[in-house]
Every structure is written in C-alpha cells, then in structure tokens.
Protein 1
Amino acid sequence: MKFIGAGARPGQPEVEHEVVFTVPNALTVLRFMGVPLFMWLVLAQEQYGLGVVVLAVMASTDWVDGYVARRFNQASHLGRVMDPIADRLALIAVAVTLAIAGIVSWLYLAALLVPDAVLFVMTLSYFRGHPDLPVSSIGKIRTGLLLLGTPMLVLSKLDVPFAGGLFVASWIVLGLGLVGHWIAAYNYLWAIIRKGPTASSRSTGRVH
C-alpha cells in the first residue's frame, strides 16, 4: 500500500465538497486536541510513555484522514485548509514541549520555526490570509518523518531495550525531516511568489 495518496480511486478525480462534518475533519480536530494533551502529559505529569501513545495517535490520524477522504470521497475545502495547519501546530507545539523538557535543543525548534516564520510573513504580504496552495509530496514526506522521529526520540528517553540505538535512529529520521522541511519551505516560498501577483491581478481586475 502506498503512503502518499493512499486511498485514491484510479480514474476518478478527487472532488472537494463544502461539507464540514466529515470523518477526515473529525480526525483532524482530534489531532488538534492531541497537542494540549501531549504538552500536559510531558510537562505537568512527566508521563513520557503516555506522551508517546498520544504522538502515535496523532501521527496515525495524519495518514488515516487523507486515506478516508480519498477512498470515500469525503475531501472538503475545510479539510484541505485545516490539515496542514494541524500538522504545523502539532510539530511546533511538540518541539516547544520537548525543548522545555530538555529532550531537544532550542536549535531544533529554531530549525522548525525559521522557515515557517518566513512563509507566514510572505503569506500575509501576498494574500492577507491562507494562500490555498496544494501540499507538496516533499511536504507530506517531511511531516511523516518528523511525526515518526519525535515519538522515537521520546521513547529513547525511557527505560526500554536498545534505547541508545533508538536515540540514534530517531535523530537520523528527524534530521531527514528537517532537511525536507527546508526544501519544502523553499518550494512553498517560490509558489507563493509565483501565485501572489496573479492572485492580486484577479482580485483587482488589473494585469501587471
């Protein structure tokens, strides 16, 4: 089974609906709710094992909601907007939590935040809101790697077999995820620049 585009029906184009209450959207909301739960478990309760479980559920919903949307024709405009926001919120909030807990350095958090901050400023400058750009394959791979590497890293801090090897493996996965993060950010930056003037021309009726 393929991981990117899983659930797509061959020969049938994906159609976005305006409906709000769908299973994929409910799973995305569940991912939003997992963020404060993870922060509470790690920072307030120091329950790293349960934190790993929450991260695993959050990571699985990221794949399942896309599969369900494509397989059962439940793709929606709201879901396309919410899904990347939920991913980004989860990645940043988890990184902040782990930095506060001393599990990762603040440099890791900076490596996540700097590209997103640049894209946020560019988005506000060009669109005054959501740019409505499609999620790239490298962006999906990046998210998957970061969502996989984070629970691996937390798990390596527990008294588990092969914790040392798990620690090394987690940073390999996270390192690849960070590289993908910067590549995806670079691609999105140019997509914003290319789309910006075109969007402005349509909204004002002028040709530049």
Protein 2
Amino acid sequence: MDHVTALPDRIAERTAEARARRRRFDDDPFRPNYHFFPPGGVLHDPNGALYWNGRYHLFYQFWPPTIPETREWDAAMHWGHAVSDDLVHWRDLPIALGPDSGPERGCYSGQALVEDERVLLAYFGTDAGICLATGTDEYLLDFQKFEANPVVPVDEDAPYEIFDPCLWADGEIYRLLSGWKTDRRATEFLFESDDLREWTYHGPLLEDGFYTDPDEDGAVPNFFALDGKHVLLCFSHPRGPHYYVGEYDDTGPTFDIETHGRLNHGPVDQGNLHAPSVLHEGDRRVAFFNVVEGRRNWQDTPTEGWAGVIGLPRDLSIEDGQLRLEPVEELRTIRRDHRRVESVSLSPEDEWQFPEPGGRSIELHATVDLGDADQLDLGVLGSQDGSERTTISYWRGSDALGIDTSHSSTDAAVLARPPEVGSLVLDDDELLDLRVFVDTTIVEVFANGRQTLTARVYPNVESTAISLLARRGSAHLHSLDVWTMDDIWHANE
C-alpha cells in the first residue's frame, strides 16, 4: 500500500530543491530514518499542526538554509511546512510564513484554527505582536497575512505580555491566549474578538504560582477539549513541556485546574522533549514536540547542514486525571524484519545480550516480570567493547523510570547531561512494559502507557547492541520484539 503523499507536478517542481538537499544528507550517520528533520537549515518549535482536506500538515520554526549564519535568530525565523497522508511519511512543501511581508521582524511560534472553509494561523511576530494569516487552498500553499497585523500589538505599558499565541472559537466568539509569565508566574493572557481584528483583553485564563517553580512560563500554549475535560499543554523554558487538566467554562470564561503534570524530567536544551503543537482530527488529538540537538555549536550550521528533529507524533488521552501519550498506531506500517525472543531468565548481575545486532533505526517492545530484582536495565545502541550504551532503567524501590545517556557517545562534541528520571508506579504483579523507538540519534521511551522519556544520543554507527540486566535480584523476560523501521524519506520515489 502506498502511504506516501504524491504531490501534484506543480507543487513537486516548487519542492525539488528541498528534495535535492535531503539527498545530500543520505550518507549522514546522524540523519534519522523515520523522524521528521528539516531539508537543511535549523528546525525548532513545531507550530500549527493541523488536519485539512484529508491531510496532516506540520509547520515548524525554521531557519532556512538560504539565510546566512550572520542573521540574528529572531530575524531568521520562518515557518517551514510539510504534509502527510498518514502521520508517518512526510513531504516538504514551500515555506508557509516569512518576515518579508508584514510588520514582524521574524515569525515565531503559534498555533492553528481549522474552520469549515479556511485555516487560520496565529503566530508571534517579533518586534510587532500577535499576527494572523489565512489559507484556503488544497495544500495550504498560499497564506495571506491580515492587513491589520499585528492584531494584538506589543505594548510595554499593558497589563499583559505578548508572546506565543493559541487561537480557538467558542461559538461566535474567537478567543486567543498569549503564553508567557507575570510576576515570575506562568500565565496565559486571554483575549476575545468577534471579527479577529479588534481584540479585547479579558484577563489571565491561568496564573500559576502553585504547580510551577518561580520564573517558569507558559509559552507555546495549546488549549483543547479531550475526554470530557480541557487541557492546557504548554512549554516552560526552564523545565520543558507541562500541562494542566481541568474544567473549562466558556461563559466566564474560566479554567479550573484539577491536575498538573510534566513531560520532561531533565535539563532543557540538551537533547530532550521541547515545544508542543497539537493537531485536531475530530475527537483525536495528536501532539508533536521538537527534540533539540544536544551537541555543541549546533546552531552554526543553517547554510551547510541541518539541525533539529521532531519527535514521533503522539496520541493524547486522559487517564486518572493525567495526560497520557502513546505513539500513533500508524507507525506500525513501517515495521520490517520482525525478530522475537521469549521466556528468558535474567540472573542477578548477569547481562543478557540480544542474540543479533539490534539496529540503529528500530522499534522494540519488551515485557518483563521484575521478580525480586530491585532494578532492571535495558541497553540500546551498545558497542561491543562496552564504551557506548544508552540505558533505560526501572528502579522498583523508587517507583522511577530513567534514561541515562552518560555513556551514549564517545564524541567530545556531545553535551553531558544527567539522567532523566520520571515517576512510574507499577501495580502488584504488573509487568514492566517498554516500547522504545531508536532512530540514529533519538531515543523515545513509552512505559506502561503512563510515562515517556526522550533523549538525543550520538553513538558510533557500529553501536547497535541490545541488552538486559537485572540488579540485586532475578527477573524474567516474557518477550522482546524488535522491528527494523523503514526509511521514510525515499519511499516510493
């Protein structure tokens, strides 16, 4: 079955340069095979993810390779654009937004609103304010910026801050959040309009100094209904993506917080989960996050190389008041070369090796009975001499899951970072259930449907081993499935 977006000739001609640039990276050992990365230049926040006309669209903060390194970051930012039929195979489209027209210095982050006959993009135009653009064509190739931009200008004397926006409609009323902070507290500033051009400040929809640390913010907000609740998913520059689940009353409007959670448990900007963008397809919500480089001087490569990766698209749901993230089912379509091992006893401190090389672009699924072991280590991207390995660990006594990258690479250019550790409480007799996606430089872990960890790693190309190790007690591997994952970039070309 052909899962690849077949672009019409008139569009393919406009994207030929991007396809040619991608081919230049075919021999790059760090180029991912089934994660989205830019066609040259630098990718940062995903923006405005949406479903339109039967296709999925992904926009992203983009420093195009045609913009020299001497340009300042806020003036280099455009919105890159890609399209997919299945959330897996992506094709580049022409740049969607740029600062060449309009009042802004650069096009920063924002989100999208899909209406019956049009798509609205809301974004932060640096040095200007919140701006809007409209698209109506089949592939969203021609966005028209509002003449009234910025519809909410920067105002240093106002009781609000203007930064990343999120736009939605409650009946005939449009509402918009500007996500940042006030008085050292994460804040979502709320605006209302009936025509998208004249906006009235309503006050903060959320002002949080309880769940978050001082000086955290609520950048890149996504506000949406899910499973009978409302979710605010946003980004804290000090600590990464976090979320609120609660009850939304659109007559107020008010948002009463019930729970708060975090999706990042390590240092920001050293190779883990970053900014969110949420796509709406009926009742389905799919989140995208970028995963930053984790290497020194990665921002110095816009004209010659590429930098930045989008994590796997993740289906969202709510369970016990917490936001749950699972890789989309469509990823199963690129599994190949299935290998399976069943029923392996894991003796204390006796490392078990998967009997063949695992691979550099794989999915694995392990189910383990922890027995009386206090700790279980799953190693991926391991070298034969033991000098490289990325280790995913579960500590029973601490009810914690972690990913340790301290031995992931011998490359001196890779930034050192401490292990990332998140909470994971297993019920009595519950098996540890790990789904791990490895793609050359990115490792994404999904555990028991309740915890997820992400890291960037840069091992040698020969480091492909998979291993298991029980510590301070015995465990039992019920099953381990490993699939090689297709290269999505040249499928059906």
Protein 3
Amino acid sequence: MTYSFPPTFQWGTATAAYQIEGAIQADGRAPSVWDTFSTQAGTVLNGDTGAIACDHYHRYRDDIQLLADLGIQHYRFSVAWPRILPQGSGAVNSAGLAFYDKLVDGLLAQGITPHVTLFHWDSPQALEDRYGSWRSREMAKDFADYATVVVKALGDRVTHWMTLNEIFCFTHLGYGVNQIPPHAPGTVVSSLKDVWQTSHHALLAHGLGCQAIRAASPQTCTVSLVDNFLATIPTVETPENIAAAQTAFHTVGTNGGIIFPALTGEYSPALLEQLGDQAPDIAPGDLDTIRQPLDALGFNVYSGVYVRAAETPLGYEILPFPKGYPRLHMPWLHVVPESLYWGVRHVSTTLNQPQMPVFISENGCAAQDELTQQSEVLDLDRIHYLRQYLHAAHRAVVEGYPLQGYFLWSLMDNFEWAYGYDRRFGITYIDYPTQQRIPKASFYWYKQCIAANQIL
C-alpha cells in the first residue's frame, strides 16, 4: 500500500530566529529577553546561550542551499523583533530588515516559499525593562506596530504570515507563581490570575497583529496563529472514549484559554469554571479583537495525552505514561503519533471549525545523534518517529480533514532553549565548533518522501 498525499500538500521545514541566527550584537540588533535569560546562572544547560547558535545570520546562503538540496518548496522561519525595533517600538533598524530582505530573496530565487512567524519568543529586552513584557496590555499594541513594519517591508514578496508561536510556552512557562519560572524568560508573579493575564495579553497581540498584517500587506496574504494545543486521544476509539477526549480537550493544558478564544471568541466555560476568581480580566471588546478570521491554523505537535471515559466528576481521566513507554531525548517527548490526527480532528469537531485549514507547523524529535567514523548520522530513531506521525497525517487527509501541509522541526540542530546545545532536533547535524552542516539519514529520507509525495 502506498501512502500518498494530495498534489497540493505542502512539504516544509522550520526554524526560529533565536535558535539559529546568532550574531546577537550585529548591525544594530539589541538584546532580547532570551539573551538576558540565557546569561543568568543556572537557567540554561551547560551555560549555553544563543550568541552564536548556528551562525545562520552569516551563513544563510549555505542554509538556503541546504533547503534547495532537501527539495522542499516551503520554509518557515521567524523574524527577530529586536533586530527590527531594537527598543521594541519607535526607531526602525534598516540593517535588521535588510537581512530578512536578503533571506527572502534568496529563498524565492530557489523556488522556496517563505512562511514568516513574526514572534517566536525573542521579544525585546527593552519592553521587559519598560513595562514587564506580557504582563502589560501595551505589549499587544507594540507587537502590532512591529508587525506593520515587517509586513510593509517584506509583504510584496511574503504572502504567508504567522503572528505568534506557542502562547503557552512564553507565558505560562515564563511567569511563575511564587517561584522562578523554569523554562523561559519572565518573572515571578503573585497569582495564577496573573499568569493567565499574560496569555490573555498575548491573545490580544495576536488579534491586533492579524489586523495589522492585513492592513499593511500590499497583496492578498494568509494569516495564521501557531499553537501547541494539547491533543487528547481516546485510548480506544469507542464512542464513550471519543466523547471523553472531546470533554477533556477543554481543560487539559491551557487549551480552554488559548486555542478556544482564538478560534471561537470565547474562553471555554469549563475552564472558566475551574479557574473561578483566577480567570484573567477581559475588557469589553477583547474577545472580538482576539477572534480574528484566520486563513489557517498552525499546529505544533510532538506528543499528546491518552484519555478514557471514567465515573469521575469530569467524566474522564488522563492516563499516566508507564515507565517503559517509548520516548525520545526530552523528558516530555513521549511518542504519541495519534496526537497529530486527533489534534487536527479536534479543530474540526470539538472546536467546531470544520472549514479551518490546518498545517503542521512543527513536528519532530530530539534524538541522541552521534557521528560515525564515516561522518554519518544514522538517526533511525528519528526516521521511525517521523514516519509514524506522517501516517497519522495521512489518516487525517484520507478522512477528509483539511490538513494542508507539514513542516518538519527542524532543518538543523540548534539552540534548544533551556536545554542549550545538548538536545538535537535537526535533520542536519551541526558541528558547533566548526559550524559544519552534515545532513543526517533523516534528511535523505525526508528528501525522498518529498520527491515522491508519499511516506517511504
């Protein structure tokens, strides 16, 4: 049996600015919150920072050639806010824009469509100093102004825009209640309500950003949100377990307070009931701003949770992963291929958005990659993981869900946030001391899948 995809299916790969660019002081760029965070003792494994990363800022031509060698036609990358507006607002740094001009032109010259994420976590330190970043509603307006600058500069060539990447990660993992946040830049806050307020402000930024993109773009474009909502999977696909998974989808993780308002214009009532007086303050008109019409939804998926029906107050229970359950090289990276299928299905059914096109904006895994004596990386574990998730994507397409494309994370090994350079997600091995790019076995496997438009 062959597992082919429609001829219009978009095969891509993805990166993020802070994880690959380096050159943190080049050409007028000012510090981001990740520059500050990563230099604080104990925040990042081995004391790593993004100061050099993959030196993509200087090696982007080589990396465009790498993309061309892979044979993809779609590439998702992010723009670094502090390169464009070093103070977060106000004066525009033309040298920062010039870098992305060259990158976009280089991609188009190779027949590769750029898909641009405007915010992938590296907000300007100046805004943290000024008003506390996402703790302030001002952040939403400043983000929209930044989006306007970028879209006016690149919108004659870029037609695929994403506002924010994974609101949960830069809000709920960055702002801790009476404890130092474990994973991301942010601050200690006094209540859960304060944490939910930061994600509410991020949703406002998304809504205002959508409006700004459409107002600034000189041509018709697509506007998306990228979210890593948590997919709930029925342990057995019986009607009662499927219903339990749909019920659980409202209240697991932060689904009810991020993807629900973004797509439906309302926080999930089940979540608001759970939060009680810890729910965020919502000003009149906020939900209308947040619920902007989207042209597509980007779904970042790596793992998920299994759910079964149960005689509990909630009507379901989340099953813990047993000790021997397979996972790859991150504590949370349990191998749950069905999460991709069920995430796409929940958008259509649980969120009642059957016409909403979805694309997998990230999927991949960290593996314990090693160079052989022949300078190969035989990452068979990564190939196995990717193949299973693509089978889930194929199921979604065959069953008629509007899954449009798949962006593998990531093109290359990079700065993996709080794990530094210790965890490798790339299909290209980076030898950091020399910056040599070495395509892994998974690179060549993915190349053949793209060429054949099917899972091999």
Protein 4
Amino acid sequence: MAGSQDFALDPRNATALVWLNGQLVPKSEARVSIFDAGFVLGDGVWEGLRLHKGRLLFLDTHLDRLFEGAAAIELDIGLTRQGVIDALHALFAANDMTDGVHIRLMVTRGEKSAANQDPRNALGRPTVVIVAEWKTPSPAIATRGLSLATVSVRCTPREMFDMRLNSHSRLNLILALQEGIRAGADEALMLDPAGNIASCNATNFFWVRDGQLRTSRDDFCFNGVTRANVMDLARANAIPFVQGDFPPEDARLADEAFVTGTFGGLTPVREIDGRPLPAALPGPLTTRLRALYEALKDAEAAR
C-alpha cells in the first residue's frame, strides 16, 4: 500500500481486542447491525489518536474535536470525556499496549428501525467502537516520499459539506483519491471552489518556496491537530510562514513539500503533478520540522 497511511505490518494486531459498546472483544467477533446508521449512511464521527510512550498525544484537542463533531450532527455519544478516556485505557491495558499505537475511535448514531436517512428512526443507542493497533509509518516513506496529483474533485465550504468535520462519510475524498491513483499518484491534491490549494484527500498539505513555509487557509481543509501543531512550531521557531490562497502552480514550483496527519506526522512529498521537487528527501525544512515535532511529542508524553 502506498500513501501517507502506509504502515509496517505487526503480527500482534491479529489478536488485539476491540472495544465495542463497552465490551472487549476479539476482532473476529466484533459486529455491528446491518441497520447501523454508520453502515447504512455514514452517519457518525470518528477520531484518530496516537499512544506514544504511554501517553495519548494531544488528548484534550482530540476530544474537543470529537465532541464538537458529535454536537454538530446532534449525536449524543453516550459517554463523558472521562468515559472515553477510561474506555481507551481499558483497551490499552487489555492489549498490553504502551507505545507505537494508532487508535481509531468511531461513533455512529447506532441501529435504526429502518434503512433510511431520517435520524428520527435511530433507536437511541449510539454505536461506539475503538480499534487500537500497533501501527507505525513505514520507515521507507521518509526517503521515498509521496507523489501527489491535482484532481478535479473540490473541497467544499461548510454550508455544502464541512471538511472540518470528521464524518464517517468520506466518499468525496475517496473519489478524489481514486482520481489521483489513476493519474499515477499516491494521493490527491484537492483545490477549493476558487481553484486554490486546499488539502490532500486524507492529510493536510504544506510546501516551501524560497525558505517560506506555506499552506492554505483554514476554510477548506481538515481541522488537523498535527497541522495546527506544525503551524505553532513554525511560529515559535521563527520559521517564515504564511497561510493564504495559492494556485496549484505555486506548489508545483516548491523546493520541498510534506503532508501532515495524526498517523504519519510529517510525510515528505517527492513530486507534484509529475514534477519532482528538487530537495533530497526529506528536505531541509521538512527535516527540521520533523525533529521539532518529534520533540513536541516526547515533551507531551513526559508531561
């Protein structure tokens, strides 16, 4: 598998338990109803987290995003913040997990009385699933990098489909990725309605020109926790940095580029629309920011 989600296989995951509605069950026994709103409609929200050196990184920010997303779609997940934390730690204890773990926490509106769109047909019991796996980025990705292709599928404003909501419905992003794959790329570079750089299909995008770090405005990209941390690191370390509206040509002429996400951290980009970027991977500013981000993670774990 290529892309920013590329990971090294770990045999321990075959026997890892899953947290499903308050029960710890083997993966092979984890089931939800065919009438679940998540299965029928993609009606739900999710959160990705990392367990690093015994600590969940940037937990408050991730929980804020989870509960804000649930509130936005009027979904009561049935757990308090502390209840979510307790569930996470119960799963880690059961699996003897302490480091290098990626977590996918998923909440749907739960089982419905009929397979249709109306949320009033939900039976009132949300489905909550936590999948925790030993999963770290493939070591080769730092020197191989990603190939991106600009695609026709656009990022959308909040009043159409809110990119800043971690919704289970990802079909528009999957369509973008498929178009990128057909173009021979690993991931898609998506534009906003005005034709400016917005986001990749699963990650946020940064590039460097003339020593300046650049990225899109917030309006049409993911509400990324790693993205926000990188921007804060740039400001704190006097790295020239600007957010704005940039045409795709600006990124094609970049000296270096990378994408950000909870799983991969900062993943270098090797080419955009078939144009190789000139810096050896990872590029010098990418290398510096990767080191700053690793130090931030270690500091967070030591708190």
